[in-house]
Design goal:
The complex is a heterodimer of chains A (475) and B (162).
Chain A: H1 2-24, E1 28-29, H2 31-61, H3 67-86, E2 90-91, H4 102-129, H5 135-150, H6 173-185, H7 190-216, H8 218-229, H9 232-237, H10 244-261, H11 267-284, H12 286-307, H13 309-337, H14 342-347, H15 352-356, H16 359-375, H17 390-401, H18 407-433, H19 438-463
Parallel strand pairs in A: 1-2
Helix pairs in contact in A: 1-2, 1-3, 1-6, 2-3, 2-6, 2-7, 2-10, 2-11, 4-8, 5-6, 7-8, 7-10, 7-19, 8-19, 10-11, 10-19, 11-12, 11-13, 12-13, 12-18, 16-19, 17-19, 18-19
Chain B: H1 14-55, H2 63-72, H3 78-90, H4 97-102, H5 111-116, H6 118-124, H7 127-136, H8 140-151
The chains are: A mainly alpha (475), B mainly alpha (162).
Chain lengths: 475, 162
């Protein structure tokens, strides 16, 4: 059962997500880029839905046991007829010719393959060295999942205030995903965290390839996937089984879908899916709640600016409708189960204004951000120029490339760019205001926060490249 | 309607198109080079480290029982505290008592030692055999609660570590 359970714990949620996607966005065919996007989106939605099922099972049955597997199979069976009925004829796919000659395409594909192999060989090797993951895995995510699976009716103990460390207020998407995987396996096996951690990390470049590929052509999609791998933080964090990489996947998917929605007739459905990804982000980590708020506010403002009040309300309410199931669970969890967030509780009564007006704090945070954004805190090994991080490279590449793009293409990247910059600014402000020791807080978390935003930054910067006219899919 | 198709207007002049393509190739080469520069050394190091670890880890098969035991201990476990303390001592650092008292799970700097040396240390005492025997008698779903009860009475584990 162990091997079967390991496979089923991954595949059943994934199939739920893919079938749900087929129900919500019934588009068939579409070539490798759409397939890539669907695979990543399907996994994300599946993880979201199964974590909701885990939460419902915990509240309904009082504990987590094999019944959650039957719940999952029931949802799978319920989604199947709709997915079969809704499958439309495949959209024709014009995969060639691309902007580059065939030799160039082949070389690019080969380079991407080498980069991906190097990246994931390193990740899996480190996973074998650290099968329990990093600090976040066994102090936050896997330990809570352990409480859910092994704790029986006392599962709430994992979220008690006495825990003190390990952020017992963090929401349950990734914890639920691991817990349901263990339920399938029948044992809290390391395999669940390792498999899910590597798989979700692998799906981020897949999503970028799909999203950027659909909007700008396959070559730029491959560039995006390769660029994502060039982040030094990945070498330190990807094997740690932390929830920052799933969160980064959800944020990137929300952004990709919101941009894609502007160029498709099924704009409402795509916004609904983008909203679901926002909900999943909020249901994964507290930073996801901040992202949800910023995303909704900026989309609302953009729609208000371009079309007036009604389009703004329609857009925000569609996004919110997609996020609603996750938001209901999140509110329930935060009000009924989770203790207060440590940043909030420690800030109470403290002098926010003193921290906000401290020039020294602003400088410290700015230095740390500069170090992360410029080099991902990577030690300089090959001289200053060759040690330059991927972000400055992409920014300079994108700035020049934007001169060759059309006005419509530049307009397409404006709002996503504002969202990424806004998130950076919000994180910056959180650090300035943090009641914790600033140096420790920056050291222990900034690289992970940048990792959360990294796929979105790659997506936005790759949108600055010119699209390939003949590579788009056509119906 | 195409996915991603925009109202693009007239095609670009050929020189512009050529320059865009050249720039794309330049950026692609730089990005690929930077990605390989970042990822290649960790891959080589990590693969080498796994080979070394696999070759010199005779207790690999037995260690998971102890790790499972440690990770099964409930909140505020005294036994877990003792294991953490021992791991810190073996790591060559002073046990940070305050840290260990507030943190139920292992201190980060003790992690490597915990996985590499602590199982060996516990094998030398009768710890593992006792723990394994205790665990074997229990249904898996009951282990967590039962170990919590055991932990209230450390005498069950005989001599404490060191």
């Amino acid at each position: 059962m162990s091997e079967l359970g390991t496979i089923a714990g991954l595949l059943v949620p994934w199939c739920i997500g893919l079938l749900l996607l087929r129900n919500l966005w019934p588009i068939a065919g579409g070539g490798v880029r759409l397939l890539a996007l669907r695979l990543a989106l399907g996994f994300g939605l599946g993880a979201g839905v199964t974590s909701l099922l885990v939460f419902v099972a915990l509240l309904g049955f009082g504990k987590l046991d094999g019944r959650v597997c039957w719940l999952e199979l029931g949802v799978l069976a319920a989604l199947l007829p709709g997915a079969l009925r809704r499958a439309r004829g495949p959209e024709a796919c014009a995969e060639s010719p691309l902007g580059l000659p065939r030799v160039g395409q082949a070389l690019l594909a080969l380079l991407l393959a080498v980069i991906l192999v190097a990246t994931f060989a390193a990740v899996q090797a480190r996973s074998r060295q650290m099968p329990y993951g990093g600090w976040d895995a066994w102090a936050i995510w896997n330990v809570r999942a352990r409480f859910l699976v092994l704790g029986g009716e006392a599962w709430r103990t994992g979220f008690c205030t006495e825990v003190g460390v390990g952020h017992p207020d963090y929401p349950l998407l990734w914890i639920g995903q691991i817990a349901q995987h263990w339920t399938w396996i029948g044992d809290p096996s390391n395999a669940a965290g390792i498999c899910a951690g590597i798989l979700v990390a692998a799906l981020v470049p897949v999503a970028l390839f799909g999203g950027v590929g659909l909007l700008r052509g396959r070559a730029v999609g491959m560039l995006a996937a390769a660029a994502w791998c060039g982040c030094h933080t990945l070498t330190l964090r990807a094997h740690e089984q932390c929830a920052d990489i799933p969160l980064s996947l959800f944020c990137a998917l929300a952004l990709i879908l919101s941009v894609l929605a502007e160029s498709r007739p099924e704009v409402g459905r795509l916004r609904l899916l983008a909203g679901a990804c926002l909900g999943c982000a909020a249901w994964t980590k507290n930073e996801g709640i901040l992202f949800l708020a910023a995303f909704l506010a900026l989309h609302g403002l953009a729609a208000l600016w371009r079309g007036g009040l009604r389009p703004g309300v329609v857009r925000v309410s569609t996004l919110l409708a997609g996020a609603l199931p996750f938001l209901i669970a999140l509110v329930w969890f935060k009000l009924a189960i989770a203790p207060e967030n440590d940043l909030v509780s420690e800030s109470r009564g403290s002098d926010l204004w003193t921290r906000l007006s401290s020039t020294e704090r602003w400088q410290t945070v700015a230095r740390a951000f500069w170090d992360q954004l410029g080099w991902f805190h990577e030690p300089e090994k090959y001289g200053p120029w060759l040690s330059l991080g991927m972000l400055p490279l992409l920014v300079s590449g994108g700035l020049v490339a934007a001169c060759f793009t059309s006005r419509e293409e530049r307009r397409q990247l404006r709002l996503p760019l504002v969202i990424v910059v806004a998130m950076l600014a919000l994180y910056f402000l959180v650090y300035v205001l943090t009641p914790k020791d600033l140096a420790w807080h920056l050291e222990s978390s900034l690289d992970r926060l940048i990792l959360q935003l990294w796929p979105m930054a790659v997506f936005v910067l790759c949108l600055a490249f010119r699209g390939e006219r003949s590579s788009a899919l056509s119906s | 309607m195409s996915i991603g198709r925009l109202p693009l207007g007239p095609p670009f002049p050929s020189l512009r198109s050529f320059l865009a393509r050249v720039w794309f190739v330049v950026v692609t080469c730089a990005v690929a080079g930077a990605a390989l520069r970042t990822m290649w050394p960790p891959m080589v190091q990590a693969l080498h480290a796994v080979e070394v670890q696999t070759a010199h880890d005779p207790i690999e098969d037995r260690a998971p029982v102890l790790i499972a035991l440690r990770n099964s201990l409930p909140l505020g476990s005294k036994l877990g505290y003792l294991i953490d303390e021992e791991a810190c001592v073996r790591a060559g650092s002073d046990p940070n008592y305050e840290l260990l008292q507030t943190q139920f799970w292992l201190a980060p700097h003790a992690l490597t030692i915990f996985f590499d040396e602590l199982p060996m240390f516990l094998l030398d005492t009768r710890f593992e055999a006792r723990a394994e025997a205790l665990l074997a008698r229990l249904p898996k779903t009951k282990q967590w609660q039962w170990l919590g009860q055991l932990d209230k009475n450390l005498h069950l584990f005989g001599s404490q570590p060191k």
